[in-house]
Amino acid sequence: MVHTVKRMVSALLAAAVWAVCLTGCAGSEEHGQPLSLWFYNRREQMLMTGSALRPVRYTGPETVADLCGALLEGPAESGGLVSPIPEGTRLLGWRLEEGELTLDLSQPYGDLVGIDLTLADCCLALTMTQLAGVEQVRITVNGRELPERDRQVFSSQDVMRSGEAELRQVTACLYFRRAGGEDLGFERRRLQLNREDSAAQAVVQALLAGPQEEGLEGLLPGDLEVLGVRVERGMCTLNLSGAFTQHIPDSREEQLLVVVSLAESLCSLEEVEQVRLLVEGQRLTAYGALDLSQPLTAVEP
């Protein structure tokens, strides 16, 4: 039953994108064609309307800043619609060159992973490609591309292919520091992923985004980036940016919390039994006072 619902969501998303390709995007270049803001239907509304994405008419100025700003504000009246774009996301800048519109957004957008990121990308691409002269959209966060994407530039056809991807749900335990304490607590998180998404990468991105429950605090550096994640035969190889070793805590106890939070979180996935850490592609054999010469497991290293 769950598998059937996931396929239904994928099919409805694809159908919605086909609709905009046939009507919205194609007609927006004609003079006087009204523009729309694209949002995501709540599940119950989606099943009633047969569409995962739905447009809301936009009557404001037809500029990049105004159209994008209206989308970031979310739907004025719910009507079963929600914005997949995180609250607080701001447009930091934009440029249009040879049909490619680059939107630079603030950090909340960078906290998205899996299908949540796909839906946000879809809504932005469908909305912004309606503007005259905009054929495709590139979305950055604080001037940087998001490495977990399989593509960085989106046209209406790219959005259609994203809509056809089969969805899956992965449950993971994410470990964070207990607020004001010296040990770890965890929250159980359900991650919505496309078929091709890496569950391990989604877990690390969720750790970077921080806890959703009260009483927990993030441990990883705010400027840390995930350069790559690979899982083979139970071994998860995680490649992190240099920020991981540039912000090593002073005490061994704090160092242990950071390392164990990564190992425990990743090993909560069914396919991960051990974790190996790399920094800028180089094997990490020590983290402060900790010996990391052996792979990490879901126990203290």
Relevant terms:
301 residues, alpha+beta, 2 domains, 4-stranded mixed β-sheet, 16 strands, 29% strand, elongated, disordered N terminus
Task: Describe the protein's architecture and organization.
- The chain is α+β, with helices and mostly antiparallel strands and 301 residues long.
- It has two domains: 2-164, no CATH class; 167-291, no CATH class.
- Helix content is 33%, strand content 29%.
- The chain has eight helices and 16 strands.
- Strands 4-5-6-7 form a four-stranded mixed sheet. Strands 11-12-13-14 form a four-stranded mixed sheet. Strands 2-1-3 form a three-stranded antiparallel sheet.
- The protein is elongated.
- The chain starts with a helix and ends in a 10-residue tail after the last strand.
- The model is unreliable at 1-12, 14-31 and 43-50 (pLDDT under 50).
Number of helices: 8
Strand order of the largest sheet: 4-5-6-7
Shape: elongated
Mean pLDDT: 82
How many strand segments? 16
* Secondary-structure element pattern, one letter each: HEHEHEEEHEEHEEHEEEHHEEEE
Give the tally of structural domains.
2
Q: Which structural class should the secondary elements be placed in? A: alpha+beta
Summarize it.
The protein folds into two domains: 2-164, no CATH class; 167-291, no CATH class.
SSE blueprint:
Elements: H1 2-28, E1 35-41, H2 43-49, E2 53-58, H3 64-73, E3 81-82, E4 91-97, E5 100-105, H4 114-128, E6 136-141, E7 153-154, H5 156-164, E8 167-178, E9 184-194, H6 199-209, E10 216-217, E11 226-232, E12 235-240, H7 243-246, H8 252-267, E13 274-279, E14 282-283, E15 286-287, E16 290-291
Parallel strand pairs: 5-6, 12-13
Antiparallel strand pairs: 1-2, 1-3, 4-5, 6-7, 8-9, 8-10, 11-12, 13-14, 15-16
